């Protein structure tokens, strides 16, 4: 079954871990071409939201719809349309860069001969392709993890702190990559603490705190001042 | 798609193990140490107590298997690669099958070493009925690894996973371990008690069917947060 969608909607989504409310009645939507920043202090619920969007967690109540279909109805076919780069990099340190990409390419039903070399080139790691990942710097691992997450051309791209450990040049490359993904029709959701970087990159800003949605607005410049006003006022 | 995914996971684990040899060496070292300690304790003047070899074989398999289960999934915890596997557009139970096959291969290697070692140290006639021995070892190992793989995957993000794994695993797999011990003891009897050995193989096969079916059925809901 082939699945595609051009929007994602969270409808009154709550997620509880025991008595702790990680998310409380959050509703928002994102469409093809959007780069949505999820902002909020530590423990706000950003990572839980990303995990739910990635189908790795189910909401305690509420519903997530991909296009006009709920996740439960789409099953495994939905996951080929989702790419996730989380804080942990989802790479095997004992394997080489090429082996990591080839494994995930095959897991996604892709031909590694046609995808892996291009991904290594994009990551700037073509000359280190056969080195084990354990010998890579954090920045190199992050670039490789980004290519791993995008290997299958996902429609919904979820990033949880994608700029951690990257130098300025690499940050610029990743930011350009995000813009290109959105221009190509992807829905990009980005959880970050880096307000300066998000300023000018994203076109929607969602602020959450304590699992509650504080605001969902079109991005304008002066994101830091807006963040302080809302988070400070809450 | 199902078996292909299982094969990819198995092949990946094999590639990692070939590079690190970490799980294989620790499992074999632990299993051999375990058998040697029992041999020093129980074998006097070249004579071991009756049926001791059967119990020691299964203790070594269960303990070294628990160690291997923990180490295998520790790998998936580092870098949270288990989440990446769960995110793949493959049937999630296929990931379980891939991991289970890896565990079976590892325990198979351990048994290839343990059986001749125990036969030698305890003067046990383990090879008198090789096909029945393979049946008992296979049946017991599948049942133990089926439950162990499920629990190790479930506990991968738990802080006290090293403590919880044996606490959860041993009570559930006790019937399999008892079946393995009694079946092996039947092979060591003089004369060999073939009907009992065949009966225990049948019981172990029934456990395997139940454990594997339940594990396949519960893997996806248990792994989704």
Mind sketching the topology for me?
The complex is a heterodimer of chains A (234) and B (225).
Chain A: E1 7-17, E2 20-31, E3 35-39, H1 46-53, E4 61-66, E5 69-70, H2 71-74, H3 76-79, E6 82-85, H4 97-107, H5 112-123, H6 138-150, E7 156-160, H7 168-183, E8 187-191, H8 195-198, E9 204-209, E10 212-218, H9 223-233
Parallel strand pairs in A: 3-8, 3-9, 6-7, 7-8
Antiparallel strand pairs in A: 1-2, 1-4, 4-5, 9-10
Chain B: H1 2-20, H2 22-42, H3 52-77, H4 81-87, H5 92-121, H6 130-154, H7 161-188, H8 194-223
Describe the structure.
The complex is a heterodimer of chains A (234) and B (225). Helix content of chain A is 35%, strand content 27%. Chain A has 234 residues and is of the alpha/beta class. In chain A, the strands form two sheets. Chain A has a six-stranded mixed sheet with strand order 6-7-8-3-9-10, with helices on both faces. A four-stranded antiparallel sheet of chain A has the order 2-1-4-5. The radius of gyration of chain A is 18 Å and the shape is globular. The model of chain A has no long low-confidence stretch (mean pLDDT 87). With 225 residues, chain B is mainly α. In chain B, helix 2 (22-42) packs parallel to helix 5 and helix 3 runs antiparallel to helix 5. In chain B, 47% of the residues are buried. The mean pLDDT of chain B is 91. At the A-B interface, helix 3 and helix 4 of A face helix 1 and helix 4 of B.
Q: Please summarize the sheet with the most strands of chain A.
A: 6 strands, mixed
Helix/strand class of chain B: mainly alpha
Mean pLDDT of chain B, to the nearest integer, reads 91
Largest sheet of chain B: none
| Helix/sheet category of chain A | alpha/beta
Neighbour order of strands in the largest sheet of chain A: 6-7-8-3-9-10
Return the average pLDDT of chain A rounded to an integer.
87
Based on Cα principal axes, name the global outline of chain B: globular
CATH architectural label of the domain at 1-81 and 154-167 and 191-234 in chain A: 3-Layer(aba) Sandwich
Question: Based on DSSP secondary structure assignment, what is the total number of beta strands of chain A?
Answer: 10
Helix content of chain A: 25-40%
Please name the two chains that share the biggest interface, counting residues whose Cβ lies under 8 Å from a Cβ on the partner chain: A-B, 31 and 25 residues
Order of helices and strands of chain A: EEEHEEHHEHHHEHEHEEH
What is the CA-based Rg of chain A, rounded?
18 Å
How much β-strand is present in the residues of chain A?
25-35%
- Please give the CATH class of the domain at 1-81 and 154-167 and 191-234 in chain A: Alpha Beta
**Count of the separate structural domains of chain B:** 1
Please give the oligomerization state of what you see: heterodimer
CATH third-level topology of the domain at 1-81 and 154-167 and 191-234 in chain A: Rossmann fold
Radius of gyration of chain B: 18 Å
Give the SSE string of chain B: HHHHHHHH
